[in-house]
Every structure is written in structure tokens, then in C-alpha cells.
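Record 1 of the preview.
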Amino acid sequence: MTLAAFDHLVVRVGDIDEGIATYRDTLGLTLDRTDESAALGIKQAFFNLPGGGFIEVVAPIESQSAVGQALEKRGEGIHTVAFAVDDLAAACAKLKEGGARLIGEGGPQVFVHPKSTHGILLQLSEAK
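->
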């Protein structure tokens, strides 16, 4: 498996407005856009990074969403680290061969379960 590039980092917060203020006002990043995903049960804020990639700040709009459950169990912090890979199918095969648990295999992106990566949800997608 070859990691082609860092893609983005997802940070879960309890309050989207406080999260935006932290990354915009305290860290000096420029807010690119906000969004809401009813399907995922989250509010989102996107901050482009100077060297490429972005930080996505997410807050749950419902407690039963994956982000809501993670927030309840683990609190605020890093939720996902995303990388682009040269060949997603080959990466999945290599990860499974090594014993990793995958989520969403067969889609345009695959997640490596946090139990396989010392507590961090990894997201892999094919390099563009």
C-alpha cells in the first residue's frame, strides 16, 4: 500500500460555532465553507491548509450519529485522518491481509476501523 498524499483531517467538536472560532480566530485559518449532512447527522466547517489538504470540523446534529457517539465515548478531538492512495483495491487487500478491519469496502472511499489503528479512524480514497 502506498500513501500518495495527506488529504484531510476531521476534528469532532461539541459545538460547531466554538470549533469554527478556534480554527479561524485562534489558529488563523480561513473558513472556506460550512455545510450540513443530514445523512451523517453532522454540521461541517472546512478550512483549507496552506500546503494542501484541509481540516474539517464536525459537530453532531443528532446524538446517535457516528460523530455523536464518538463524542460521547471519547470526547472532542481527532476523528479521522484521510489519505489518498495510489490503488484503493490493492490497499484494501494489503490491509485485510495484515488483519485490519475495513468499513465501506467497495465504495469510493474506505475506512480503517479505529481498533485496527490505535484509536484513529483512517479514511482512504484513490489519488486523483
